Amino acid sequence: MADGAALRTFSVACGYLLSCSFLLIGNKLCVQHIPAPALVHVAQFAFSALAVAILHFGGIISVDGFVWEKVRPNISFAVISSSAMYFNMAALRYTDVGTILVVRACCPLCVCVIEHCALGRDLPSRRGGLALVVAALAAAGYMQTTQDLSSRRGWQEGAGPALLAYFACICTADTFGKWIVDSLQWESKQWGPVLYANALALPYQLGVGVATHELRVITGAWTSTSAALLLLTCFLGLSISYFGWSCRGAVSATTFSLLGLSNKLISLLAAAFLWETPSPANLGFLLLCLGAAFVYSQPRPKDSPDCIPAQALANAKASVLARPRTALLLCALGRFSCLSDALTRRLLHL
To answer: Helix, strand, or coil here: 36?
Structure first.
């Protein structure tokens, strides 16, 4: 059973990384033919939501209907994750990829603290904490050994607010996404969040496209090549949605954040070998950062009322009068649960 769970976790993680890599290339080619990134995202979100609905009504999968208890947090998640994409692009206007990588490499350090406080997971072990620190330092080393020094000038020109906003959105989205998968009651933890996330992100991205006048741009951009590329990215978008939410349910928020960092590292390695020759130090820091992400091991979640099986919790409550120490333990767990719930509610309103 444990081997099967580990194999499934490895499979969805590989599927997520491959989907990210292929979608990155596909989006780059697609935007070159259709210079309307927000409306490209609208098409991808609509395709994924429609595909899940068709599979549901066809009896192939079972997904949840739209209820406010799930809609409200998923709207917040859609806004936060879409804002992360926006601030990533905004920061790239002022700075280089190396600086973005440093910010992204620092996210797991923050996520592990938020996950400990809000989701009840233990802090990383010494080995895990060292791996997170090494990944962040290696990313900083990569930035310093990159020949392009536009990052320093970009910071002075106003990249700081965009980078800080990107950092905050990524940390919040990685932790919040884990809370959505684990805390909400889903008929299918793989397909339910896929439907919600894509359907509820549509209005936000459509508003961005209308506000930036992308409707005027796409009128003359349709060719057989652009249509084929858009359709390809739609299928890849569905793939990344499925594997992404499956991966969130299988690993911790910190591990998922490291997977996002690993995807960027692999993309940079591929770009380095395909389009330019990296220096030995530059390549070494990239490999060190990727190795640190690889050796990280996630801690187990803390024991909390949400993690205790229902029958075991009922038995504990039934014997509380006969076991004063159990009563004290349940009281402590209840107080911890209240603290976690309060912190989670703060995340909901970020």
So the answer is: coil
Is the whole-model pTM more than 0.70?
A: yes
Residues 241 and 27: beta-carbon distance below 8 Å: no
Backbone angles phi, psi at 121, to 5 degrees: -100, 140
Mean predicted confidence (pLDDT) in 302-311: 43
**Residue 209 vs residues 38, 89, 199, 241, 342: alpha-carbon distances, Å:** 5, 14, 16, 21, 35
Q: Could you give the percent of the chain with pLDDT greater than 70?
A: 77
User: Quick check: 154 and 99 in contact, CB under 8 A?
Assistant: yes
Cα–Cα distances in Å, from 73 out to 184, 196, 197, 208, 338? 10, 10, 10, 21, 18
**Cβ–Cβ contacts within 10 Å for residue 58, how many?**
8
Residue with structure tokens 């990569």? 142
The answer to whether the beta carbons of residues 179 and 22 sit under 8 Å apart is: no
Q: Mind giving me the DSSP string for 122-176?
A: PPP-HHHHHHHHHHHHHHHHHHHHSS--HHHHHIIIIIHHHHHHHHHHHHHHHHH
Distance CA 244, CA 80 (A): 16
Of residues 54 and 342, the one with the higher pLDDT is: 54
Residues 6+ away with beta carbon under 8 Å from 217: 34, 35, 36
Average pLDDT of the residues in 53-78? 90
- Burial letters 262-282, b for 16+ CB under 10 A, else e: bbbbbebeeeeeeeeebeeeb
CA distance linking residue 302 with residue 106, whole number of Å:
24
Supply the pLDDT for residue 157: 60
- Residue corresponding to tokens 């060190």: 288
